[in-house]
Amino acid sequence: MKKIINYIFMTGLLVLANACSDFDEINNDPNAASEDQINVMWMLNKSITDAQMDPHIHERIFVYYWMDAARMQRFGYISLGNNNDGFNHDYLNSYISNWMKSAKQMVDLADKQLAENKLTAPHDIAMTKNMKEVGRIWYVYLLSEFTDNFGPAPLDAFQTKTPTYSSVKDVYYFMLQELKDAQSKIDVSIKPEDSEKKFDRAYEFDFAKWVKYANSMRMRLAMRLSEVDPAKAKAEFEDAAKNSYISSIDDVFRVKERDGWDPLAGVMSRGWNTFTMGATFANIVVGLGGVKTSDLLTAAKYQPYIKAKNYLGRRLQDHWPSYTNDPYTGFFMDGLPYSIDPRFFTVYTLPLDDEHSFNPTTVKKDGKDVVNKDSIFYLYKVAEQVPEGAKPTKVDSINVKYAINGYSNGSWGDAGSANGALSVSYKTAPVISKQYRKSENYRVFFGNWESFFLIAEAALRGWNVAMPAKTAYENGIKASFAYNKADESKLSDYLKSEDYNRVGTSVNWDHTAEPPASVEMDIVNGYTHKAEKYTYKYPVASQTLYGKALNDHLSKIITQKYIAQMPWLALEVWSDHRRLGLPFFENPAVEKPLTRMTWLTKDNVKNSQSYKFFSQRIKYPSSLENSNPEGYKQAIEKLGENEVFTPLWWAKH
Questions:
Q1: Looking at residue 400, what is its pLDDT?
Q2: What are phi and psi of 24, to 5 degrees?
Q3: For residue 372, what pLDDT is reported?
Q4: Buried b (16+ CB within 10 A) or exposed e, 126-159
Q5: Neighbouring-strand partners of residue 286
Q6: Which backbone phi and psi does 253 adopt, to 5 degrees?
Q7: Contact present, 580 and 44 (Cβ < 8 Å)
Q8: Beta strand 518-525 with 311-315: parallel, antiparallel or unpaired?
Q9: How many CA atoms lie within 13 A of 469 on its CB side?
């Protein structure tokens, strides 16, 4: 055991020293550090720090997997069934060999130091007791991330040489019990010394906040069981919600980023990742809340680009996929929509705008700012047979300046080839704002808005919570507006709005009328440039994965939760969609067959949805089977199949 602890201490020493530069407590050779000399808070710091994911890990897991599966960007990797065994190995290895191991051995070392009376100062004893419970709470988060990605997990990890794999149900029952027990044993009256605070990157050892985090995590995990184990979900949620939980912006569990190539580098900081908005987010925010774009963007430069209220866009049906159930397919919004969710302009920046990360209005040329004229994209003749060496025929051009468009994943076939990179270029659509890219922000693990949306859902289900569903729902929206620094003077009108977004959901809690099957809209024919009328069709509720409605209370809650979680809580968004089929995710386009989703075809893509149309998990890497064949066998027996589209126990299927 001592060798293991010394190894963990030394491998984390550079990270910790670089982060805190405070190891004066050890006066002799660190290589000879013993358990008696190690403070458990250093190990907590190491686990939390490393779990932020260094750029090698976060680009693959947070970006390629989570944000893609959650439709927080238009990417098309795991959402189309793609899998990389190397990515999965590196992620799983970091979990087991580093993040979880440090947290678990922190708890074990605290137990040992307390049991063997290694600590003498009352403050050290009290802090160590509390930190043990904090370590248990943090370990549960790590375990939840593991099981929500892979499935069955080793509850006896670090206790035996070859750990066994427990079912997702057993893992969830364990996590819920751990959170309940750990938070109950924390003494919130204990105050850290100033020199100790830096070793807790989340809360600076404000133990009352750790209690709140434990209870909010318990609500999150309890709600995950709502569809498969409702009695357990109800009992656990009600018990957790009786206590303090994350309810204010000061309670948010977040960790400060910093620039560089280490675990604290921002998870969206790699400059080559474009984070272009996808169709899902565009369809959800455009029109939602009825707040006029002209009231959000008041600068004169935007006004000519803002469209009329009933304007749908420029129709380019030959250059967009027809085999998808994206209700907006075939259209390009050639400017700014009449109204949009106010938070949009915090999360995203516009093409050819000054703050756009890749295609600003001005660019540097010979050391001077000059106008960027790279705003025109060309359409080409569809499926034209072009002689070798010749160029395809241009049929039109599109100005992308300030245009708010999101494109669907999948195969666009000949239509995609003919739209002149319009649908794949990062220059033609909004991209995630610089504030999330520069490693100067705080990565959020649990926001106060999530607590309120969880309580709203619990109240909607008839569970015994202290707040009505409508109040909790509106509190969640208010918290999200505040976090995003959205114009709160628009909040009252936003909450009253009965305007539908493109998928038929409105904001007003009391407005549950379903949208009409269709509505007549104004468009511009993309090829003749003439004004026309068009019958826009909303999704058919019975043909969605949720299957019940487009504008009921649960649709409203999860729609607002989805917007509020952008862009930090991609894993939670993915989990909500796996659990409920909400919010509405369009099917990938299948102009040509998708090799890893052969069951999604031209015959079923427009009028049906199945859990198999959406990624469900990350596959165990082959290294697990090689290193622990018995554990791997146990995991697959409990899971069913080691595939991307194999649903977890709590998911909708």
A1: 92
A2: -65, -20
A3: 65
A4: ebbbbbbbbbbbbbbbbbbbbbbbbbbbbbebee
A5: 340
A6: -80, 110
A7: no
A8: parallel
A9: 17
User: Using the 8-state DSSP alphabet, how is residue 539 labeled?
Assistant: P
* Preceding amide of 567 cis, omega within 30: yes
Q: How many helices (H) and strands (E) does the chain have?
A: 23, 14
Alpha helices in 59-121 (DSSP H): 68-69, 85-94, 100-115
Is 283's pLDDT higher than 80?
A: yes
Packing angle between helix 230-241 and helix 207-224, nearest 10 degrees? 160
Measured CA to CA, the distance from residue 556 to residue 633 in angstroms comes to 41
Token pair of 462 as six digits:
């008839």
| Cβ 131 vs Cβ 200: under 8 Å | no
Residue 371 burial (CB count, 10 A): 11
Which tokens in the block code for residue 375?
Answer: 């705003």
Please tell me the distance from the alpha carbon of residue 649 to that of residue 384, in angstroms, as a whole number: 48
Gap between the Cα atoms of 589 and 160, Å rounded: 47
| Average pLDDT score over residue span 37-49 | 89
Contact 146, 97 (CB under 8 A): no
Catalogue the long-range contacts made by 193-197 (C-beta closer than 8 Å, 24 or more residues apart): 193/123, 195/22, 196/41, 196/127
Cβ-Cβ contacts under 8 Å for 3 (sequence gap 6 or more): none
Beta strands in 412-530 (DSSP E): 431-432, 442-446, 518-525
Angle at 170 between CA 166 and CA 174, to 5 degrees: 110
pLDDT tens-digit series, residues 555-607: 999 999 999 999 999 999 999 999 999 999 999 999 999 999 999 999 999 99
What does pLDDT average to over the chain? Answer: 91
Task: Tokens for 442, please give them.
Answer: 């705080």
pLDDT more than 70, % of the chain: 92
Q: Evaluate whether 111 touches 608 at the Cβ level (below 8 Å).
A: no
The pair phi, psi for residue 64, each rounded to 5°, is -70, -35
* Cβ atoms < 10 Å from Cβ of 244: 17
Take residue 307 and report the two structure tokens written for it.
Answer: 């469209």
Instruction: Give the number of other CB atoms < 10 A from CB of residue 250.
Output: 10
